[in-house]
Amino acid sequence: IRATHGRLDICVNNAAANPYFGHILDTDLGAYNKTVEVNIRGYFFMSIEAGKLMRDNGGGAIVNTASVNAIQPGPMQGIYSITKAAVANMTKAFAKECGPLGIRCNALLPGLTKTKFAGALFAQDSIYQQAIKGIPLGRHAEPDEMAGTVLYLVSDASSYTNGECIVVDGGMTI
Length: 174
Prior knowledge:
With 174 residues, the chain is an alpha/beta fold. Helices cover 45% and strands 13% of the residues.
C-alpha cells in the first residue's frame, strides 16, 4: 500500500467465520480455532498494520464489522457471538490507544442482513420467521443498508466519533 498509494486513510475489517451452529457445549476445537482466527486475530493484526500506516501519515479511520451478537448472543451461535463481542471491545481498545495518533476506530453491529455469510439463517424458513418476529421493522436488511453507516464512520462527518459500536438492526436489540 505504501509503495503503490503512499498512504492509507481507511481500513474496513469485514470478515467472519461461523463454522458451527449448535449448542455451545458441543463446540469442537476446530470450529473454535477457525472462528477465533478469522473474527479476532485477523481483525487485530490487520488493524495493527493499517494503524502503523495511518500513524505515519497523521491519522485515519478503522471500521470493524461486528454483529448484534456482540451485545446479545445469538442462539446456537456461542463462539461466533463471543468473538464478535471481542471485536466490539477491540474497537474500543484501538480507539483509546490510537485516538491520540489521529486514528479513529469504530464498529458497525449489523442485525439480520441477507448476505452469503448469513445464508443458513435464510435457508431454514422456521429459523428465518423466528428471527423476523424479533425485528420491529418486520424484515431483514439488505447489505447496502449497512453502507451508509460505514460511509459515515470513514468520513469527516464522524470526525469526533471514536470507540463507538453503532447498531443497525431494524430495532432487534430494543
